[in-house]
Every structure is written in structure tokens, then in C-alpha cells.
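Hi support team,

I submitted a single chain yesterday and got back a structure, but I'm not sure I'm reading the C-alpha cell output correctly. Could someone confirm the output below corresponds to the sequence I sent? I've pasted both exactly as they appear in my results page.

Thanks,
R.
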Amino acid sequence: MRGLLVLGFDDSERRRQQMQEAARQRVFEKMAHGGDLNEILEQVALYVESSSPSRRCCILLLNEERNRLYSAAAPSFSELCPASLDGVVVGENSGCCGTVAWRGERLTVENLLHHARPEACRTFACETGVLGFWSEPIVASSGKVLGVVTVYLSQAGEPGDQDLVLLRHASQLSTIAIERKRIEELMHLEASYDSLSGLPNRRLFCDRLREEIAKAERGGYSLAMLFIDLDRFKEVNDTLGHEAGDSLLVEAAQRIRACVRESDTVARLAGDEFVVILAEVGEIAPQNRVAQSIVESMTRPFLIGEHIAYISASIGIAGYPQDADNVETLMSCADQAMYAAKQAGRNNFSFFTRRMQEQARQRLHLSGDLRDALGKGQLEVYYQPIIDVASGLPVKAEALLRWRHPQHGMVSPEQFIPIAEETGLIQEIGVWVFREAADTAKRWNALTEEEGMRQISVNMSPRQFVRGNPDVLCIEYLQAIGLNPKAVVIEITEGLLLDDQADVLNKLRHFHEAGMELALDDFGTGYSAMAYLKKFNIDYIKIDRSFVRDLETDPSDRAIAEAIVAMAHRLGLEVIAEGVETEGQRALLMAAGCEYVQGYLYAKPMPTVLGLQHDVLVEA
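Hi R., thanks for writing in. Yes, this is the structure output for that exact sequence:
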């Protein structure tokens, strides 16, 4: 060997680029693994700083009010310095960072000590030992400023082309990180929270209930679950419209939330169903108080635009570990208890019992059996006479649906009518009842042709009006059998009166124009919207049996009945009183001017096929 030829290369620039690229890749790794936003932004700041040891980077983001900046990442500043970066005012004449956020434009300052900026900038430069200042706004894809990326230099200087590219890259990376994180948060909200009420949805509720059950198991304490269903909400929703229904649900959610502790969970499962988790309850008393508070809060009127709606709540209560030891069973138990509260008259609460499980199974079986009941001939139409008070003769009758189940015998309408409405079977069944009643009215009038028109009333659910076309089907059938439309009366509930939807109003008007009369059933128990009586062309008002029952002993009920009759007559309407069982009740109603009565004083509902006589409706 004669000697060595040594070639030296400056490798620092290549190493710097390698380190910078590695820092950039770590930014993407943080994003890919769903890291915390501040951690990602801190990695962006380190990526900028990797370009030169004399540079320090901080990233400031706008607050929700968009009037101040707060520090999101400042890895190379001392713990005290970022505090001075928080709360930077955004404005034209504010500090350097505040100006960048205000204008949405890049700003570079060669030397902060010589720059005509607020004293705070020079003070910051003295405290941190920085001189140069380069700042780039962080801009969203919509053009909205989100914050600023700022580079501080230990010496004075203007940025070169590569420096400006680096700033843009850092701004773009920050934008991607911020928008991605906000999309993730939005997706989490949509997946876990109800968009209408803002409450946790079913998915998040089930997760929290599992957590609370696990805590209760470890701690050896109990918890309670409340299943809340809003009574008559569907009626409000069907009659006033979905927008009004949504407003009511939002208000109901707020009222429920106000009845529980901050540590308790309130969620909306679906529709008008809400649930509550009462954590760490060791006795029944707190559950009673909360449930009663919710029941009372729901009875207060709901102001919806120009309307006032009244609903109530039925609540079922089940507890861990006494009733169930897992999420699914606990929810099922509370649901069954809620149905028990409804069957007990609604507007109350009920605790779960083992007997309710059997009732729930029966309800499920009834739902399945009802689908075949019409086809198998199990449904029947009964008729209760409506008596003309003056003559004592049956001039009208009300058609009432009955279900003769092959195993359970006669099933109460209170059991199967709600099932029919929930499943949509009410449309098909309702049309069948109307046709049966129309056929009976034709036979009856054929026997009493010389004695005046005899009418049969047919009840119609609000769901028939909202989701079907009962007017068209019924009118076409009357024309097909050649029956005078005056022979059929359509009975509706008070809730339908509040419906301003053109579709429902047109259907009622169609009935009236065809020649059929309208009766308002159960008057006084619901909305009692007097102003709507003439608007909907009501012909008859039916006084609910709850006002008739104590006529002879309660002066208040007597005054109410007399007032209803007087009001109806002033409006040109006739009155039918339901539930008349004694001669004394009949006499008082007659004295008040009531035209018609129906009840057990005269006859119970009866199946009539051939039992029609000239002057009386009798059982076949």
C-alpha cells in the first residue's frame, strides 16, 4: 500500500432530510392509529422543528367563539411559555398570531424586537430568546380558518422557498388532522347519540348499562332501570304532524333529564320511548320518587306552536340484581312493567313482577293470532242501541268490534285494538267493520223504512285517517250496496280535531260531503278543542261515561254534562250520553236536553244478524 485517497462528504443535509421525512411519517402513523388530536399536532410541530435545530414550532387553534387562540402543541417551549400563548386575542391589531388568524394570510417577521407589533410580541421574544417569526394559517376545506402554525427562530431572518413549502405542508397536515378528528367525533355522536334529543341512543345506553351492572356487581349494590313510554304521543304525532311530535319529544327529554341526578343516564331508545339508569339505589323509595316526578312532569301541558297538547307517561321499573342480571333481560323486564302500567290506566308507574313475563308472552301470541283472526272468522261486530230520549226507541246503534279467540274466549278490545294499531292491521280490520255495519244498517232500514232513518255509528282510529284512505273505500262500498250515506255515522276521537294536515281534513270533509254524519266520541276526556267543532262539521257530541257515572251524586259531573249539552246546542249539535245505567241518570240527562242515551239501562252490546225488528234491536 503506497497511501490513501480520502474523500470527505458533508452528510448533515441528507441526515436532516431523513430525520424530517421520518418525523413526517410519524405524523401519518399517529393519524392512522387514531391518536389524540394534540398528540398528532405535536408530531406536526416536531416535523417542522426537524428541519433545523434553531427552530421552534407551536400550533394554536381557535376557540369555539373564534375570538381567541389556545395552544394545542408547543413541544420545544418550556411549560411556562405555552401559558402565554393561550388566550391570544384574534383581531387586526392584535399580536402576530392573532393577526394571521384574523386575516387568514401568512405573516413573516424578520425580527420581533424591531417589529411594530404590540408589546406582548416583544415581551414574548425576550422571554423565549426568539427573533424570527413565520406563521401560516390553518385553513379548512371550506375556507374557514381553524388556527395557525407558527415557527420561531433563534436568529433574525426571512423564510426561503423551502421554508414556505414546509410551512404549507405543516398547515395542510394540521388541517387533515383537525378535520379527520372532527369527522370521527361527528361519527361517534351520530352512532351514539340521538340526533333529535341529544340523549344517548340505544347503542350507547346498552354500553352504559353493561358498565353500571359491572360496577354494581363489584360494589355489591343495586341499580334500577326505568322504561318510559309517552301515552297518547302517537295521537299527537298523527294529528298535529311529525314536526310537532318532534318538538314534544325534545321537551319531554328535557323534563325527564330534570327529574334525575347528574350521575344518572337518560336515553331515548326510539320513537316515544325513553329509559333511565338509576345507579347505586339500595331501596325502593328513590325509584318511587323519580318515577312519580317524571309522571307529574309529563302531565303539564306542552305548548306546540299555536296548539296545546296533553300527554302522560307510563313507566316500568326493574332492578339489578333482583329482577335480572344482564342488559337484555333487565330491559325486557322494565318493558313488561311499563305495559302493566299502561294496562292499569296509564299515567302511572309499575314495578316488574314475575307474572308480567307470562302476560308479555300472551301479548306476543295475541299479536300473531290477530293476523289470522279476520280470515278465520273469529272477529265479530256487536251493536249497542242508542235510544231517543223523547220516544224511548232505538233509532241508532254503535258498532263494536269483538274477538272470539278459539282458546282464550272473548278477548277485550282494550287488549287487541292497540295491537292492531301498532301492527297496521287496523286498516284491514277497520274496513271490514265498516262493511259489516253498513250491511246491518241496510237490513235495519229495510225493516223500518216507514219510520225514519236508522243510523249505525262506526268508530275509526286516527291511524286509519293518517295511513290509509278510509273515505274512498267506505264511500265506494255504500254506493256499491245502494245504502243512503245518512245511515252511517263516523265516530272519531278528540285528538283528530287538532289535526290541521290537509290530507286528514280532506278525508273528513269527503265523508261529510258524501252525506255521512260525524260524531265526536269520549268528549271531555282529551283535547276538547271547542273551536274545531264547526271546522270539522261535527254533528254529534258523545259525553264520556266518566261524566255520566256519578251524575246522581256528584254536582260537578252534573254541571259538566249540562254545560256540554248547552254548548252543543248553541253550536247546532246534538248530544249522545254514553254509559247510562240508571233511570235517575236518564232523567237528569233528559232534563238537561240530551237527545240520545246508550248504556246498560237499555241493552248491552249484542251480536245481531237476524234479530232486527221494526222498533227495537234485540239479540238474535
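A quick pointer for reading it: The longest helix spans residues 161-192. Let us know if anything else looks off.

Best,
Support desk
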